[in-house]
Design brief:
CATH class of the largest domain: Alpha Beta
Strand content: 15-25%
Distance between the termini: 36 Å
Number of helices: 13
Number of domains: 2
CATH architecture of the largest domain: 3-Layer(aba) Sandwich
CATH topology of the largest domain: Rossmann fold
Strand order of the largest sheet: 2-1-3-4-6-5
Order of helices and strands: HEHEHEHEEEHEHEHHHEHEHEHHEEEEE
CATH superfamily of the largest domain: Response regulator
Largest sheet: 6 strands, mixed
Helix content: 40-55%
Shape: elongated
């Protein structure tokens, strides 16, 4: 086991370099893990265990123990049984549950503290702290980025589906000034027509045809050159926005990007951004946008984590596992700093905490991450 400590949390190195051992260091830190260790999501459960093993190797403290139990996935019976077994083992802090849907169950165990990788509610809720990369953190990072690029007319786009109300509630809480909302039909066939309306595509196309007619019957050099320039265009005139935030992912995101290109949105004039990207390389090959910006966790640390995981376990981790890796480091830091962990209030640190995914802030019982901005360009992820 390597002695060199490369764990991500600030100041931990101070504890390891000290030759003065207090009584607190002799105590045991038992941390429960709620994971789907059997059934359809067993591979995810195994990946979570592996990620915690990596974190334990780096912490290199024989007083830290993981107590894993099979909680299934959205299975209340298994979840309750797993929590009871963890309590019997003497752990009062638990990594999990994975889903926000299970919070109502774990709230009842108010003598335990739960650190969840969920990103739905980035705050302290009773005895639960959610440390996932939240939509709020992503939008605030994009808001700062867009302001620095001096963009004044931003449209926030998202599909009219089962998540629309959730997104609207988040936007209302953030109270972002000067942004317009555009909800679109997730059906690709309907989407293109809606994007045409948004971008005033028909009128811009007519503008071009009218402009071309002005020079078609003229034979002077200037008119010929002007017509040649116009022949290279698809539309004439700018759209009524200078940046967009697309809250979508996967094939739906690619459909929106394709529609923006089809309607001849000038990518030099309009800053195109999105959320929910975890360095998915398929965006390189199915995306017609030249430069796409998005907030994300630290790419260099993400690569290091994946490579280290692969070197040890000969497989690549599920994306969510880097959150549990950070969660263990966060718990260990709180334990070493306070000597014990009694409640969620022990995680109200005054200073920011650096993690693999980014930098955590725990202010007013709200969890936020300072995320980096990346762009996809020339089939690469480039930190902006």
């Amino acid at each position: 086991m390597k002695k060199k400590i490369v764990i991500f949390l600030s100041y931990i190195i101070l504890f390891f370099n000290s030759n003065l051992l207090s009584d607190d260091n002799n105590k045991k830190l038992k941390i429960g893990l709620l994971a789907p260790l059997t059934g359809e999501y067993a591979e995810l459960g195994k990946s979570l265990l592996y990620s915690l093993q990596l974190a334990l190797d780096e912490i290199n403290d024989e007083n830290v123990f993981i107590v894993p139990r099979d909680a299934g996935f959205k299975n209340k019976t298994k979840l309750k049984l797993a929590i009871e077994e963890i309590k019997k083992e003497g752990a009062n802090i638990v990594i999990g549950p994975l889903s926000n849907d299970e919070f109502e169950v774990v709230k009842k165990y108010n003598d335990l503290i739960f650190i969840s990788p969920s990103n739905i509610s980035p705050e302290f809720i009773d005895n639960i702290i959610s440390v996932g990369v939240s939509l709020e953190s992503q939008l605030m990072s994009l808001n700062d980025f867009i302001k620095k690029r001096n963009r004044k007319k931003t449209i926030i786009m998202f599909p009219e589906n089962q998540y629309a109300k959730f997104i609207e509630s988040k936007l209302n809480k953030l109270n972002l000034d000067g942004y317009k909302i555009f909800k679109y039909n997730p059906d690709p066939q309907a989407l293109t027509g809606e994007i045409e309306t948004l971008t005033n595509y028909s009128q811009r196309k007519k503008n071009l045809e009218l402009r071309k007619k002005m020079f078609q019957d003229k034979e002077d050099d200037q008119s010929i050159k002007e017509l040649e320039k116009l022949e290279q265009l698809y539309t004439l005139g700018k759209v009524n926005f200078d940046s967009v935030i697309i809250i979508d992912f996967g094939n739906n995101l690619k459909s929106v990007l394709t529609s923006l290109v089809y309607t001849d949105v000038n990518q030099k004039d309009v800053l195109i951004t999105t959320v929910n990207q975890w360095f998915d390389e398929s965006i390189f090959y199915e995306n017609t946008i030249e430069t796409l910006y998005y907030p994300s966790i630290n790419y260099k640390e993400f690569k290091k984590y994946n490579e280290k995981y692969f070197a040890k376990f000969s497989s690549y981790p599920n994306e969510i596992t880097i959150l549990t890796y950070d969660a263990l480091g966060l718990i260990y830091y709180a334990w070493k700093k306070n000597g014990k962990i009694n409640s969620v209030n022990d995680f109200l640190f005054k200073s920011k905490i650096k993690g693999k995914i980014g930098t955590f802030s725990f202010k007013d019982k709200k969890v936020s991450q300072d995320l980096d901005i990346y762009k996809t360009e020339d089939k690469k992820f480039i930190k902006f």
